[in-house]
Design a protein that fits this description.
Two copies of one chain form a homodimer.
Chain A: H1 28-56, H2 60-70, E1 76-77, H3 78-85, H4 89-101, E2 105-109, E3 117-121, H5 123-144, H6 149-170
Antiparallel strand pairs in A: 1-3, 2-3
The structure holds a DNA duplex.
DNA sequence: GAAAAATAGTTTAAGATTAAAAGAACTCGT
DNA sequence: ACGAGTTCTTTTAATCTTAAACTATTTTTC
């Protein structure tokens, strides 16, 4: 991280990623990496949101929620859902409410534990989601597809390393859903 | 609850990134790359949000806005601000409102064009932001710092390629905010 | 068993976010 | 000047988001 050569001046950008150069030689490499990562992720996400809205009149959170349910045919607890989606409990409550409203998913209070509630896709929801998932997959392929397969793989692997770095720094379990008591 | 655990074989993950394998052999590489990218970005972003809140009782959007203003000592138009932040106009209106309220930035209607309004950091805002920026920079370095400098650089460059791929697919100007003269 | 602690979800209050429409001010051709 | 079109910003309506407080239920402890 020390002696990084005299930064190759980049071709002036003006978006969120531009001009990291305030800090002297203060973590510059990390900052510009983070900004670019963020910019690219936002770019892709924005495009997918836009297409979900235009094509299916839905939103990314709804899509994500349904994607989780599609993987759990027998239903899933709200808490587990919120953990997998990495959002708050209250957030899930609202999303589920609206999706139930639209008849795409169903809620059912558990008998064994009356605090808990299971949610799952309805038949209709499954059908609708199938369409959306195919389109979503195509879109992602379209957006990332310029990148040669090897580069994709290399990028994926490096991002894996980065993920480890972050997990190490936040000392959260590298990936487990249940961080198992320490 | 461990009852329905998907049985992580190999190094399988259980967060948002897990199990892409629905589609036949359908764009699997692109999907898993996108999911990992999204996961990593969210991971970092969540940590930064959390620390901004705990340490400075502020939010990421506010921080981002101030970061933009810090680069424009003479002030910047709201529209330009929203373009740089890659968010909607209305969004900026609200953010600016709250930051003005807190005395961190100031708004001033342009004399030349009374539709337009300039915003800039106040003296107080500049002071406060300096602290936050230093901490932010340290945090990012801490989170990404495990990664060797060369890997950071490689990742940064590959993300640049990815950015180009996305721009090509959305045929939006690769980066320009200001359509360069000539 | 009853009190205490833990767990699952919901509610609340505030903020962030967008798209679409409205409002206000400017430019320019005629 | 006039008005049409453009540009800059705010408003509106809806959704998404979170943290913190709260309710209801189960589990643990003594």
């Amino acid at each position: 991280m020390s002696s990084t050569r005299p930064v190759p001046r980049e071709h002036e950008h003006i978006d969120a990623e531009s001009k990291v150069g305030e800090s002297p030689q203060h973590h510059r490499a990390e900052l510009r990496l983070w900004l670019r990562l963020l910019t690219v992720a936002n770019l892709i996400e924005a495009e997918i949101r836009k297409r979900l809205r235009e094509t299916f009149d839905t939103t990314l959170p709804r899509f994500d929620l349904m994607a989780q349910l599609e993987r759990a045919p027998d239903g899933i607890l709200l808490g587990e859902l919120s953990r997998r989606m990495m959002v708050s409990n209250g957030n899930v409550t609202g999303l589920v409410e609206r999706l139930v409203q639209e008849g795409l998913i169903e809620r059912q209070v558990s008998e064994r534990d009356r605090r808990a509630a299971l949610v799952r896709l309805t038949e209709h929801g499954r059908t609708v989601f199938a369409d959306m998932a195919r389109a979503h997959s195509d879109w992602v392929a379209e957006l990332l597809g310029q990148l040669p397969a090897e580069e994709q793989k290399a990028l994926w692997q490096r991002l894996g390393d980065l993920k480890l770095s972050v997990h190490a720094a936040t000392r959260s379990a590298p990936d487990e859903t249940k961080p198992e008591k320490t």
